[in-house]
Write a structure and sequence with these properties.
Shape: globular
CATH superfamily of the largest domain: Zn peptidases
Strand order of the largest sheet: 1-2-12-3-13-17-15-16
CATH topology of the largest domain: Aminopeptidase
Structural class: alpha+beta
Order of helices and strands: HHEEEEEEEEEEEHEHEEEHEHEEEH
Distance between the termini: 28 Å
CATH class of the largest domain: Alpha Beta
Oligomer: single chain
Number of strands: 19
Length: about 300
């Protein structure tokens, strides 16, 4: 899982996904039969004659530094007081959380690479600095949402002969990237069905360690006929999986629904604990099941 640890270490909050797109382009560009299309920092990779696309968002939550060391949320980070942060201009610091637990946070103890105290630049982007690790079958890292989804999509891309993957931007904040990629995939390749490779919540009903999760609904509902096809195939796969029902939350599936492109979609992702925090936790076995089920579905949905 070295690629996952590498992905988790890359800086890439919404609006600043360029480094992740560059890494993915280099990684997938080595595939002799792959076609790469880059639109901004969205990257579409296709092999063979695909009929199904995987959408995996490359952005993370984070903060924009405003005036007077105020941290303005990008997406919905769940920072805790004292969390270590790093910036787009090479500085490090710690988060001073709001006493009320709200979104308004500030920076404190900012230092440069030499360890000297400095004043940070307003407008810089800040993300969690905790190093990812794997211990006792559990990955502990910031931004498993959604670097784990990107990793699983990469695995499926290696396994399947006929597949398209949209590594898209902006899911945590605005969702524009998924709509851009959907328009290209439908217009250029005629693709009208998608799997959303993302991360969901650990709950009593869908706990970590029990397999990948297929979402029957969140704040939005997929088309039932397509969902039924996915569920039937998953049941024949013998890959450990769970069924999830939520009334809130969303993914790139919700962004696709807001587009004018008629793409069917279903969410397929591993559960994790402590979402959007500096120490998200997911079971390695669930991530492996996620990658296996995505590849299994892509091959058979075609």
């Amino acid at each position: 899982m070295e690629k996952l640890l590498k992905l988790a270490s890359l800086l890439g909050p919404t609006g600043d996904e360029g480094a992740v797109a560059d890494w993915l382009a280099a990684e997938t560009g080595a595939m002799a039969d792959a076609t790469l299309v880059r639109i901004g920092d969205n990257l579409i990779v296709a092999r063979g004659a695909p009929r199904t696309a995987i959408f995996a968002h490359t952005d993370t939550t984070g903060y924009t530094l405003g005036y007077h060391r105020q941290l303005i949320p990008i997406g919905a980070p769940a920072g805790r007081d004292g969390d270590r942060l790093r910036s787009s201009d090479g500085l490090c610091g710690r988060l001073r959380a709001s006493p009320e637990g709200g979104p308004l946070c500030r920076l404190r103890k900012v230092r440069n690479a030499a360890g000297e105290k400095v004043e940070p630049t307003p407008g810089s982007r800040w993300t969690y600095a905790r190093q990812p690790e794997i211990k006792s079958g559990v990955v502990r890292s910031p931004y498993l949402d959604n670097r784990a989804g990107v990793w699983a999509a990469l695995r499926a891309l290696e396994e399947c002969k006929h597949i398209a993957v949209a590594f898209c931007t902006g899911e945590e904040h605005h969702g524009h990237g998924a709509r851009v990629c959907a328009d290209w995939l439908y217009g250029q390749l005629g693709i009208a069905q998608a799997l959303i490779a993302d991360i969901t919540w650990h709950t009593r009903e869908t706990p970590c360690g029990k397999g990948v999760v297929i979402s029957l609904r969140d704040a939005f509902t997929p088309r039932q006929a397509f969902l039924d096809r996915v569920l039937a195939l998953a049941d024949t796969s013998q890959i450990p999986h769970q069924r999830e029902i939520q009334s809130s939350g969303s993914s790139d599936g919700g962004h696709l629904l807001r587009s004018s492109v008629p793409l069917d979609w279903v969410f397929v992702g591993a559960p994790e604990k402590a979402a959007h925090s500096a120490c998200e936790r997911a079971a390695v076995a669930d991530l492996e099941a996620m990658a296996e089920l995505l590849a299994y579905l892509v091959d058979r949905l075609d």
